[in-house]
Amino acid sequence: MSSPVVWTFSVQTTGVFCSVNKTVIDEIFYLQREERVQFLLNLFKAKSKNSPIEFKAVLNCAKKISSEDIKLLINSLAKKKQLELIGSISAANNSHFNHARKGEDLFFNIYDELPNGKLINSLFNELDAKDKKVDLKTDMVFAWPWERKRLSTCSTYIGRENAWGEWKEDPLNHFIILWEPFGFSWVKGGNHSISIGVLREGGKLSPREYYDVSPLFDHIYTDGLNYYFKETDKAFSKVYEYDFALIFELGRIMHSREANT
Questions:
Q1: Which of 24, 54, 50 is nearest to 39 (CA)?
Q2: Which of 101, 111, 216, 258 is deepest in the core (most CB within 10 A)?
Q3: CA-derived radius of gyration, the chain
Q4: Nearest C-alpha neighbor of 80 from the set 106, 59, 98
């Protein structure tokens, strides 16, 4: 049996620095999938949400792991928010809940203007969504149910033994937008029934819109505190979801590797 894998962090006045040698990296692949996920998540427990230096240091650690494990880490960080968005209506004080930030806004407002006056989403490349499927069991789909009664109704009636039967796609109601290279889908219609599909890990959806958003990496970066335009180095948005700032930069690492292969 291989020896336990250890990431070494040394805390200095200039921030957190991660020291990892090749032997340690090789050991990761002897771990079971669940152990590897936890291993990678433990790496981020050492992060500081107030230090761009430490944010950069943690990302430097991530550069030492495989693209497969970076994708695993992205999905693990995103899963927490996915379930939080669905569960927040249950904890709300009233029957309706207004999510402060949802969908693409977990990163930043894609309708903000670039320095050239165009909108950020003008950078997206539209892809052919024909025959593309999103799996609610394995893919990251972000729904934000806003009414407790609707969610409860869907939970009661959707299911093999229930009145509406097993979960299935409703082309008239369900509307999702898929982003690559993150593999994230944002729900624009059918939030309550799709939430039940996510929780029960059943069903597939056809994205109504499908985009490659990797051009964002050429124009935008984050230090964990703010998002900046590369052209001007000026901040245009605060980081409201720290894990999504990490995801943004992890996506850059993954995309850069793919572009260079």
A1: 24
A2: 216
A3: 20
A4: 106
Amino acid letter, 25: I
Report domain extents, the chain: 95-259
Three-state secondary structure string covering 16-66: EEEECCHHHHHHHCCCCHHHHHHHHHHHHHHCCCCCHHHHHHHHHHHCCCC
86 burial level (CB within 10 Å; 0-12, 13-18, 19+) = buried
Residues 7 and 18 sit within 8 Å (Cβ to Cβ) = yes
Question: Is the pLDDT assigned to residue 157 strictly greater than 50?
Answer: yes
pLDDT score recorded for residue 108? 95
Say yes or no to pLDDT of 44 above 90. no
- Surface-to-core class of residue 193, CB atoms within 10 Å of its CB (0-12 exposed, 13-18 middle, 19+ buried): buried
Strands 15-19, 8-12: pairing is antiparallel
pLDDT at 142 over 90: yes
Model confidence pLDDT, tens digit, residues 174-202: 999 999 999 999 999 999 999 999 998 78
13-28 pLDDT per residue, tens: 333 344 444 444 445 4
